[in-house]
Design goal:
It is built from no helices and eight strands. With about 150 residues, it is mostly beta strands. The protein has a five-stranded antiparallel beta sheet with strand order 1-2-3-4-5, with no helix packed on it. The relative contact order is 0.11.
Length: about 150
């Protein structure tokens, strides 16, 4: 899942009894192109220069039942550090609950007759002590809000 020149790190984890075990190649480090970092055309003589941006990417993919959680930390040339979580995998499905209209579940979407893909959220907690160059940093939170029932 990593690109280009790659370095893998092993990870030591704890099993259900608290005993350590090692996962080989659990964490990946590689560089990616990040578009144009700088560009200028000198209007007097038409001289054109640009520099590509690169980012150092540390990534890990965790499989939990039907989901894959893709975790990325990106170190950018402008000093920005970005932490991103992507979700992939398969729908988590169930039967509509007792008392629900089997044709229109209250808390999901029918993806096949009698198969409900329930609406739910994934909550993540990450502790990042990011006092980088002082305390003037930015945090963004994105929340999912359901649409009102059209009926």
């Amino acid at each position: 899942d990593c690109l280009g020149h790659i370095h893998y790190f092993d990870a030591t984890l704890a099993d259900s009894n608290g005993e350590p075990y090692t996962v080989s190649k659990a964490i990946c480090m590689h560089e990616e192109d990040d578009g144009i970092l700088w560009k200028h055309v000198e209007y007097r003589n038409g001289h054109n220069e640009s520099r590509r941006a690169r980012e150092l990417v540390i990534s890990k993919i965790c499989t939990v039942v039907n989901y894959e959680y893709l975790l990325y930390i990106r170190f950018k040339l402008n000093g920005e550090i970005e932490f991103e979580i992507r979700l992939s995998g398969e729908l988590s499905t169930n039967l509509p609950s007792a008392g629900e209209d089997p044709e229109k579940p209250s808390y999901g979407v029918l993806c096949a007759p009698g198969v409900n893909a329930q609406i739910h959220q994934h909550m993540f907690c990450a502790r990042l002590d990011m006092a980088v160059d002082g305390d003037e940093n930015t945090v963004s939170e994105i929340d999912v809000i359901g649409q009102p029932d059209p009926s």
